[in-house]
Specification:
Layout: H1 2-10, H2 12-48, H3 54-96, H4 103-142
Length: 143
């Protein structure tokens, strides 16, 4: 019974990281859906108008860039989530094997944190791109 309690205790830290990563993933997927919806509207407007609309084409390019940042962030978040799940499993296996694999959960956890860091980098780039795009759209409308 003591061994089971220790296994469950060791799974708490990766579970918290999984929950946090899941929240970021949900947020990133919602942002991606909004960017894709906006891109669809821009494409419909572009198809309805003339093909030489430089301002509209620029907006489309900006939103494509944002969607690419968000896609990369989502992929990194999925990899991070998988790594944290792997960390939990490695911790359980390590405990069951008498702590003979103690390096394995640590390495998998560090890999997950690296993916998480990469995702945050792309989420940050997307936020900057969103604000810049919004500023540019305001300038275009006011001219």
């Amino acid at each position: 019974m003591n061994n089971s309690y220790h296994i469950l205790n060791s799974l708490l830290a990766p579970a918290i990281l999984m929950a946090a990563t899941g929240s970021l993933l949900l947020s990133a997927n919602n942002r991606l859906a909004r960017v894709v919806d906006r891109l669809r509207v821009l494409m419909a407007n572009w198809k309805a108008g003339t093909r030489d609309q430089p301002a509209r084409e620029l907006q489309i390019q900006r939103h494509r860039k944002r969607s690419n940042y968000l896609l990369r962030a989502c992929l990194y978040l999925y990899f991070a989530l998988g790594s944290f799940i792997g960390t939990s499993l490695a911790l359980a296996v390590d405990t069951l094997s008498g702590n003979r694999l103690s390096v394995l959960p640590t390495i998998i956890g560090i890999v997950g944190m690296c993916f998480l860091l990469g995702a945050v980098f792309y989420l940050g780039r997307e936020v900057f791109a969103a604000v810049k795009s919004f500023d540019d759209e305001i300038k275009e409308e006011m001219d």
